[in-house]
Design a protein that fits this description.
Elements lengths: L1 E5 L4 H10 L4 E6 L11 E4 L5 H8 L4 E4 L9 H22 L3 E7 L23 H20 L2 E7 L1 E2 L8 H4 E2 L1 H13 L5 E6 L28 H4 L21
Parallel strand pairs: 1-2, 1-4, 2-3, 4-5, 5-6, 6-9, 7-8
Length: 254
């Protein structure tokens, strides 16, 4: 399978391509130059905010892992350019070139104002906590439209806290390890059918925040458990505590 990975020089992207480059024929891209990535696939520096460059990247690939964009809160203008617009350009290029499988890096911040301790599933109402979260909700809805109109399947991954290990109490519900993130993306690429399903990017199939058992249906079996780190973080001072899944992001702009 020939797979385009956008945002390949980012934290998630680089760990992913190192793990899967022997399994797939990779086309890698990022807005910044990264010499290291050239050993893992065909690397092409590009700006996803330029539709002609996106169109060129998408030619002749079988699937797309769309990790590119701004990965935290920023101004509306920057989020619009680098998240809203770029996601549209990726889907439009996929439509044009007949690509039928996309793995979209969504975020828990698409549902950031959902209250904690109710274990929401894939059908939870979008309640973004930021412009960033709104861009991810937009991407999920765009995926639904392109599936209905053009049969492009998308796995939208509501990624939690991508860290080497949990560092605070919130991470007991939001943490995903590097190898579990890699595994989940591969499961999405390899699944027979995903239509436009949502999966939570956490190292758990069920916890106080998320009901992620749908991910088991595509073969996801988390290898790491945030509970293994509970004793390490019991004495961590509680900061930025909120009653919402989005944590401190819900305080941005207030």
């Amino acid at each position: 399978m020939k797979v385009l990975v956008t945002g390949a020089a980012g934290h998630i992207g680089k760990n992913l391509v190192k793990a899967i480059h022997q399994k797939y024929d990779l086309v890698l891209t990022d807005i910044k130059q990264d010499e290291e990535l050239k050993q893992f696939g065909h690397y092409q520096q590009a700006d996803l905010a330029v539709p002609e460059q996106v169109d060129e990247l998408v030619k002749n690939v079988d699937a797309i892992v769309h990790l590119g964009g701004i990965a935290t809160e920023s101004t509306y203008e920057l989020i619009n350019k680098n998240n809203f617009n770029t996601t549209y350009y990726v889907y439009e290029a996929a439509r044009k070139h007949g690509i039928k499988r996309i793995v979209f890096a969504s975020s828990n911040h698409a549902v950031g104002f959902q209250p904690i301790n109710q274990s929401i599933g894939a059908d939870a109402l979008h309640m973004p906590d930021t412009y960033y979260g709104a861009s991810k909700a937009f991407g999920e809805n765009l995926a639904n439209m392109y599936y209905q109109k053009h049969a492009i399947e998308t796995a939208s991954l509501r990624i939690g806290s991508y860290l080497e290990k949990p560092t605070e109490h919130r991470n007991l519900n939001t943490w995903i390890s590097v190898r579990d993130m890699n595994q989940l993306i591969v499961c999405c690429l390899e699944a027979n059918q995903i239509s436009t399903n949502v999966y939570y990017g956490v190292s758990s199939l069920h916890n106080d925040y998320f009901d992620n058992r749908d991910a088991a249906l595509i073969g996801y079996e988390p290898l790491d458990n945030p509970e293994d780190f509970r004793d390490e973080i019991e004495n961590v001072k509680l900061e930025n505590v909120t009653d919402y899944i989005g944590g401190p992001f819900t305080n941005f702009g207030r």
